[in-house]
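Data deposition worksheet. Section B asks for the primary sequence of the deposited chain exactly as it was used as input, without tags or linkers unless they were present during the calculation. Section C holds the resulting structure in token form. Section D is free text for depositor observations; keep each observation to a single sentence. Incomplete worksheets are returned to the depositor.
Section A, Depositor: J.P.
Section B:
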Amino acid sequence: MTEIENDNLRDEELATRSLRALIVLEEVVAHAAPVTAYAIGLKVDLPKQTLHRILSTLTRAGFLQKDIDTVSYSAGPRLRKMSLDILSSGPSRDVRMTILKSLARDLEETCNLALPSEEGMVYLERVETHWPLRIQLRIGSTVPFFCTASGKLYLSTLSPSKLKRMINAAHLQANTVNTITEPDRLIAEIKKIRSKGYAEDNQEFIHGMVAVAVPILNSDGQMMSSLAVHGPSARLSLEQARGHVDRLRQAATDLSAVIFENDQEAED
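Section C:
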């Protein structure tokens, strides 16, 4: 075999390994919850030893991470950052921003999109209010789950057992006098959010700021991200914020349609 043939063989083998890793990543992110190697193996046509080697490599590299049970896998910090970068620069961004700007104009307050990460909710997009008095949280910043509208909304999507483990393990620090720091009380609050379908932040994260958030759902009815409006309590009361829920839901439906439309175009 010539040197050129050897090089071509190595390139082909490298491409095959890379494709296998991508197939495994695709299967992991297709699940709303952490997934075991056994469940992945049922979907991908790979030898068991090969699959475990790929999972181990992707975990060490930070693209995957093991769940608390140590046998399940979910998206790791590098994969979540990649997803955030893709969403921030994808072809749907112009339409997404148009919807968000229209919402902020109608509500006359700052509106944002946030994604769940390992540490908390990460701001993906935001449109500032026109008022001089505003509360600024830059794109890419991370806010806690337990004391923000978007974060509590995400917590409401977790199973009761996972929610309890997560809250019991969390450091429920009092950011303001309104922050809920008692685990049982917080779990009761999350249950109410689950039934209402939206979440509130009544000056729990930042003194003087209120917010409400609704979910942006995928085709399976699972939360992909949150859509929220927030403003200073001196101008936006909690009752007024609750009055924006229907308009937020309308915008969330529009944003969901944009995402699905682009996914369908990519498949076609």
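Section D:
The beta strands are 35-36, 64-66, 72-75, 110-116, 121-127, 142-143, 199-202, 209-217, 223-232.
Residues 20 and 46 are 8 Å apart (CA to CA).
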